[in-house]
Amino acid sequence: MPWYKAGTVSVVQNSNAVIGTGTAFIANSRVGDAFRGPDGGWYEVTNIASDTAMSIAPPYQGVTNNSGIYALAPMQGYVKDSADALRALVNQFGGILAVLGETPTTAGVRAALNLSDADGLPEGATNKYMSAPGVRGITLAGIDLVTQGAVVATDSILSALGKLQATKADKQAGALGVSQGGTGATTEAGARTALGARGIKNRVINGNFSINQRAYISGTATTSANQYTLDRWRVVVSGQSVVYATSGIGFKVTAPAGGIEQVVESVSAGIHTLSWIGNATATVNGTAITNGGQTAALAAGSNPVIRFSGGFVEDVSLVPGAVPVPFESRLPGEELMLCKRYYEATSCSFYSEGGAARSFTSRPVFWSVEKRTVPTLTAAITNPSNYYNHSAITPTKYGCQLLQQQDTAGTSSGMLLVYGNSEF
Predict the structure, then answer these.
(1) Position 387 pLDDT exceeds 50
(2) Alpha-carbon gap, residue 36 to 311, rounded angstroms
(3) For the purposes of burial, counting CB atoms within 10 Å of the CB of 143, is it exposed (0-12), middle (13-18) or buried (19 or more)?
(4) Class for domain 8-78, per CATH?
(5) Which range among 57-66, 100-109, 138-147, 192-201 has the greatest average pLDDT?
(6) Which of 191, 323, 348, 357 could disulfide-link 183, Cβ–Cβ 3.0 to 4.6 Å?
(7) Which helix (DSSP H) or strand (DSSP E) does residue 243 occupy?
(8) Is the CB of residue 138 less than 8 Å from the CB of residue 128?
(9) Averaged confidence pLDDT in the chain
(10) What is the rounded CA–CA span in Å between residue 231 and residue 212?
(11) 3-state DSSP call for residue 250?
């Protein structure tokens, strides 16, 4: 480091003060430096008060000089202080600098600290990495489960999950269309209709009382116990009647005190659920059943008896299992054919011209459906032009052969009505 000599100094014999003119002592000298005075003597700098004032030791020995030349020379002690300061700095921060590595670049420091990827830092208790455990552990605080909509690329994960859940909840509350993987309905019956699937679980036939093959007139008193009135329904007590009125596509029936009942043919094994519209009292096999309630376990193939009494009833449903099913209406033709399994009226015509007395003619009769059992037949003649007798030959569940007898000579014609009854 060069000596400092700028400006001049004023010194006084036996005085420690040095006053400079055009000097900058603070920046260019240190305590401990050597001061060469105008007298050529060497002194030690003991204090630097400002750029123009310092103190020396010993006091100035030469003659007083108001504008003398001088020199400030750095001494070895200044280098030692620097070395000591550097040593202290190294002792304090050397280990830290070693950890930062030897490459003076950002990439070098990251490499030395193993920060080239996220594995260089341990996962915190709050801030989690995008690891599988971290993602699974993130809570959904603040998620919006109301706003629906399509998920878009700018959505956050939380927003996307909220949209999906809101849309799912809305779909569950309504009918999910077939194109969306649903059935288009919210009920079992509606789903079957929407999907074009057939098959009604209701085991009751004519549950809405719409079929009336016997042409029973509302309020007509019965003449015997267990007399059938509206198809498949019989009045339990002789002399009582069924009163009915139109309701929807069927009838609303007022059951007599003794009750009306239906024998249900060949049910499946297990409990069944009975439901209806109305305030009538119901029993199954003599045991009271609440609306929407379950029967005891029924044996497979058994024929339980459903009875309603003391109130009105419509839309009767008996289904397997413990879940009530809303009434399902069959097609009228389908319901009629089910009723004809138990009761049916049919006819055949005959004609003979110039027949002799005691002549016989046979006529076949076929039932619309197979009867439950071999039916009991009743025949009636209409519009006879001549007297004759008739009788049935070997009836079956599928039909019968009718024999017509003409008692007198001449032409005979007429219509023979045949009633087949295979009710319980």
Answers:
(1) no
(2) 135
(3) middle
(4) mainly beta
(5) 57-66
(6) 191
(7) strand 243-247
(8) yes
(9) 87
(10) 5
(11) strand
Residue type at 241 in one-letter notation: S
SS3 assignment, position 280: coil
Structure tokens at 374: 């071999």
Sign of CA dihedral 305, 309, 315, 317: negative
All residues at 6 or more sequence positions from 59 whose CB lies less than 8 Å from its CB, including other chains = 13, 14, 15, 16
CA atoms within 13 A of residue 59's CA, in its CB half-sphere: 6
Distance CA 409, CA 377 (A): 28
Q: Tokens 């989690």 label which residue?
A: 128
pLDDT tens per residue across span 239-286: 999 999 999 999 999 999 999 999 999 999 999 999 999 999 999 999
Per DSSP, what are the bridge partners of residue 197?
none
Given the candidates 2.60.40.2080, 3.10.690.10, 2.130.10.120, 3.10.150.10, the CATH classification of the domain at 341-421 is 2.60.40.2080
Q: Residue type at 1? A: M
Structure confidence at residue 189 (pLDDT): 62
Higher-confidence position of 360 and 108: 108
Chain centre distance of CA 5:
93
State both tokens at 34: 């050597």
CA of residue 53 relative to chain centroid, distance: 91
Name residue, tokens 């110039």: 354
Domain 8-78 shares a fold with domain 227-337 = no
Distance separating alpha carbons of residues 305 and 299, to the nearest angstrom: 13
User: Amino acid identity, residue 412?
Assistant: S
- C-alpha to C-alpha distance for 120 and 38, rounded to whole angstroms: 66
Number of H helices, E strands in the chain: 7, 24
Distance separating the N- and C-terminal Cα atoms of the chain: 132
Does residue 187 have a pLDDT over 90?
Answer: no
* Fold adopted by 227-337: Jelly Rolls (2.60.120)
